[in-house]
Amino acid sequence: MAVLLETTLGDIVVDLYPEERPRCCLNFLKLCKIKYYNYCLFHSIQTDFMAQTGDPTGTGKGGASIFSKLYGDQAKYFEMETSPRIKHTKKGAVSMVNNGSECHGSQFFFTLAENLDYLDGQHTVFGEVSEGMEILMKINEAICDKENRPYQDIRINHTVILDDPYDDPKGLEIPDRSPEPSKEQLESGRIGADEEIDDTKGMAAEEVEERFKEKEAKAKAQILEMIGDLPDADVKPPENVLFVCKLNPVTTSEDLEIIFSRFGKINSCEVIKDKVTDDSLQYAFIEFEREEDCEEAYFKMDNVLIDERRIHVDFSQSVAKVNKQGKVVWEHQKPDGRPQYKIKDQTSRQSKKYDLVLDDDVPSSSKSESRSRHRHGDSEERVSSKKPKRRKSSKSESSDSEQERRRKDQKKKKRRDSSSEDEDRNRRKDSSREDRDRRDRHRGQEDRRERSYRDEDRYRGKDRERGKDRERDSRGNSRKDKYRDRDGDRYGGRSRDRYRDERDRR
User: Fold this and answer.
1) How many C-beta atoms lie closer than 10 Å to residue 269's C-beta?
2) Which long-range CB contacts under 8 A does 172-180 form with residues at least 24 apart?
3) With helix as H, strand as E and coil as C, how does 487-505 read?
4) Cα separation of 104 and 76, whole Å?
């Protein structure tokens, strides 16, 4: 007993177990015979676990057994068969899905791994894949979303019964031909089963590489737009701006503007300079009013000698000056569009903080005061009154007040810094003085300790010498006592000479 399942990826042959699972095999065979599984989706594919199908709705919540076609909705499900027990030990085993109440309908699944013991007793194994295991592995490699549903539809297109030992039940309507799929069945919201995913099919290798580079550039542009480096991901460099490099450091923006203005009107010309040193970085951007003038300058000015340097001219690829409206805005331009260039040797060196005041502008009161001072003999004031005076303007007064305030703040800051430095210095002195006193106390304690040790040693030595003297004296006294009489006189009341004479006579 076998059934052929024609899927969108290939054919799979399933061998059934009619002796062990007669009711499940009858249900599966008759559903295949009435074309119930045609165009059913594999609605759940879990890699190395299972591939589930058999639901005409494609949601995993539908489906009914063959007995509902015979006896109505009360026979939508039938009880699962548990004896004999068949385990999910093989890859490619076919098992009926448990609906949660120990019953089966029309849904079934293929196992995609071996030894799935935790499925035993929950679902009923009624067959196995005998041919088409490679198709089953293709299904296992399908790319799915977080709900385990494939992004591209995988369907059962047709079912063919190779061997059916069961008779058809009475009242079962068997179609003469396979029915056409309904619109609801084919509309899954995913990539169609017959839809080609490979967009590069039939394209040359160069075209594929170019297309890949375009996609990569677009992705990078979107990233730059998100981080704020580009005003828009689809922004393009302006076609009326030239990039000029290999310039001489002495070449200025005015020089380039004069040279390139022969091709047409120039909106702006800027030699890029270092922000710190204000030295030329030897490249510039020139914006023309018309694109035709820009192209003509590109073809005629490349490799031209300017200030003893061969320059290189190319179309600008920079979009740093392009705003969101696609217009080029240069840093040296005013809001009204006029460049902030100044002609050399035309700027006034006179300070704008003060205005000259002549004698004609001096009020009468000041003149009378000057005359009175002259009468009193103040010659210095007389000389200074004749000199032109300078009157401060309101702007200069505000700037002077601001400068005075800044000067005061700086003095306060210096005073604060100096006071903090003095405090740090005094703190260091105090700490050094404390360290010095601590060292002196420690040295004094050590000196006193050593002095006491020396004194103890000296006293011990003297006591030792006194003890030796006492012992020596005691020995001598004992020796002398031998020659003394009982009264304690050594010569017995005789003189020493007499004693010696008597001793010699003996």
Assistant:
1) 26
2) 172/30, 172/34, 172/66, 172/69, 172/70, 173/34, 173/69, 174/33, 174/34, 175/34, 175/35, 178/35, 178/38, 179/35, 179/38
3) CCCCCCCCCHHHHHHHHHH
4) 9
Q: Is 20 exposed, middle or buried (0-12, 13-18, 19+ CB in 10 A)?
A: middle
Tokens standing for residue 313 = 């001219």
Torsion angle (degrees, nearest 10) of CA 292, 294, 299, 302: 170
Q: What are phi and psi of 86, to 5 degrees?
A: -120, 125
CA atoms of 468 and 452, how far apart (whole Å): 24
Distance CA 318, CA 35 (A): 64
Residue type, 227: I
As given in the structure block, the two tokens for residue 440 are 């002196």
35 confidence band (pLDDT: 50, 70, 90)? very high
User: Which amino acid does the sequence have at 99?
Assistant: N
pLDDT, one tens digit per residue, over 233-246 is 788 888 899 999 99
For residue 66, give Cα distances in angstroms to 168, 176, 200, 454. 11, 18, 45, 119
The pair of three-digit structure tokens given for residue 67, joined into one six-digit string: 């007995």
Over residues 293-313, the pLDDT tens digits come to 999 999 999 999 999 999 999
pTM: 0.47
Give the DSSP letter string of 19-83: TT-HHHHHHHHHHHHTTTTTTEE--EEETTTEEEE--TTSSSS----THHHHH-GGGSSEEPP-S
User: Which residues, other chains included, contact 296 with Cβ-Cβ below 8 Å and sequence gap of 6+?
Assistant: 263, 264
Please tell me the distance from the alpha carbon of residue 272 to that of residue 247, in angstroms, as a whole number: 11
Question: 10 Å Cβ neighbour count for 177?
Answer: 6
